[in-house]
Amino acid sequence: MPSPLSLLIAGLIVLAATYFLWRWYDRGSLRRRSQRELTEDALKYIQIRLLEEKPPTLDSLAGVLNLARDKTVALLVNMESQGLITRTEGKLTLTEAGSERSHELIRAHRLWEHYLAEDSGYSPLEWHEQAEKREHQLTPAEMDALASKYSYPSHDPHGDPIPSTGEKLRRHAGETLSGAPVGTRGEIVHLEDEPQAIAEELDNLGLHSGMLVEVVERNDEAITLVSNGHRLQLPVMAADNIFVEANGQLVPQAQSSLKDLQRGQSGRVLAIAQQCRGAERQRFMDLGILPGTIIRAELTSPGGDPTAYLIRDALIALRADQANYIKIEPVEEE
How high is the pLDDT of residue 19? Predict the structure, then answer.
């Protein structure tokens, strides 16, 4: 008869397998996509590759769609019969109809990412995945309503231009950080959201659009940056996913954040970090966390996180990642 421990281990294995199978399904690897969704995904991929001047191929398309080569061929034949693409000597191009449809999909994706960044509880690492699903459902009228709601935003949270109706698609600005020489100073203007593992690594390092960086060291394997007084070392592969617009602007020195305060210490708010957006930023402002506000670290949980801060005579608990958004200068209270 199996021991209780072996039964527990077996149960945990089943739960883990179920969880990862669901995540795989939910991310689209197993999720059954309609022919329309496959067609639209292919159109979007071809358009983006052409925009980047990286001609799409049958094999690259099959990889992105997670389809067998023969099924990808069948898909392309069907798209050609619908007048969406042309194939000449192995080269894939979009017809006017195909270009218009891909334009709508890209606009829908980027507008929905903007919405998620401003008004949802999803984390930055979830924006792309959620937009991948929603882009197939938004109507032109819904897209126009979203654009109007946010005063016609020019870029999504990753730095990609959001085209208006009828506007020609544009490539994001900047050049890859991997090609930047030592001494380059500039602003991060775009971060790729795929592959997911690299996007997570960049997010964990606190890199975001709008950040000023300087390249201080590089070799064949890694690039070292300075930003906000901190040194960050990136593998060249990760630097390929960061696009910087060189401007020679000096990189600011390190700023203290609320999470740096020890119990009993106080700080004056200088700003809320740019990468804090939407509902969370609004919540901070509603709590009175504005430039000039004096905040005192009062209590720390036994595990060290969260910490309770005295903000305008109210005791508010904030996690370390939330407190890190609030930039301060230390002050001595009488």
Answer: 43
List phi, psi (to 5°) of 49: -65, -40
Give the start-end residues of each E strand in 179-263.
185-191, 212-218, 222-227, 230-235, 242-246, 256-257
From residue 85, give the alpha-carbon distance in Å to each of 63, 91, 106, 300: 19, 10, 17, 60
Residue 68: strand, helix, or coil: coil
- Report the distance separating Cα 93 and Cα 96, nearest Å: 10
Q: What is the rounded CA–CA span in Å between residue 260 and residue 327? A: 10
pTM of the model: 0.71
Exposure on the CB side of residue 102, measured as CA atoms within 13 A: 25
Task: Pick one of 2.30.30.90, 2.60.40.420, 3.40.1480.10, 3.40.50.1820 as the CATH number of 175-246.
Answer: 2.30.30.90
Q: What is the mean pLDDT of each run of 10 residues along the chain (334 residues)?
A: 50 49 44 84 94 90 93 95 90 93 95 90 86 94 94 90 86 88 90 86 84 90 86 90 84 75 90 80 88 91 89 91 87 71
| Boundaries of every domain in the chain | 1-28, 35-94, 175-246, 256-331
Enclosing H/E stretch for 158:
none
CATH superfamily of 256-331: Ferrous iron transport protein A (FeoA) (2.30.30.90)
CATH class of 35-94: mainly alpha
End-to-end Cα distance, the chain: 70
Q: Which residue has the tokens 């399904």?
A: 25
Q: What whole-number distance in Å separates Cα of residue 332 and Cα of residue 159? A: 40
Task: Please indicate whether the domains covering 175-246 and 256-331 agree at the CATH topology level.
Answer: yes
Residue 281 confidence (pLDDT): 84
CA 296 – CA 317 distance, rounded (Å)? 12
CB atoms near residue 58 (< 10 Å): 14
